[in-house]
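We emphasize that the prediction below concerns an isolated chain of 199 residues; any contacts that depend on oligomerization or on bound cofactors are therefore not represented. The input was used exactly as deposited, without trimming of termini.
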Amino acid sequence: MIKSVILVVAVIIFGCITADKIKCQKQLREEQQQTFHARLFDAYAGISSEDLMARLDNLAIQLQNKSDLNAYIIVYGPKGEGAGTGNRLLRMTTDYLVNSRGIDETKISGVYGGRYKDAKNAWTELWLVPPGAESPATRGYPINISELKGKFAEYNVYDDPSECEGPCSGSVTTDIGSATWKRAALRGPMKSTAFSVCL
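Result of the prediction step, given as a token string:
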């Protein structure tokens, strides 16, 4: 009786090992045939600086935990190089990851993707790119600045945090809106009138 029980257990174990081996080999073949693609990790627009840092911290953790991955950043927003522009946001994002989170700058690349569909905001996409994968392509967001009419944007900003209740750090969108507005005002026809009111 004991010999038959041992024999049954041995057959079951051998069968499980063989089945697992076949399953593992099949899974390995499927993974080898798979092409690798970049994966969208996060995307955002119009967030506070605290939220921005938290999202970039999460990206940095992914890059540190999976050393074979690279980050690819696409920023859509106003043209130019100054405050609130897409290029400036791209540089700030990269700078934070490299200098504040210690990510090797060779693991980060990015591109300015052009204007975003909402002229007051920028849109940022954070991608994780495995080895052998192509970087994601940018999308074109058509926008006609000459069609902007009426009140463009209104922002509450404070010189001193004691002047307000709650978080007064402002948001990234303040500079973005003003950068787009300035560009539209400068590019508009001479009959255009633009007002900037600061209280």
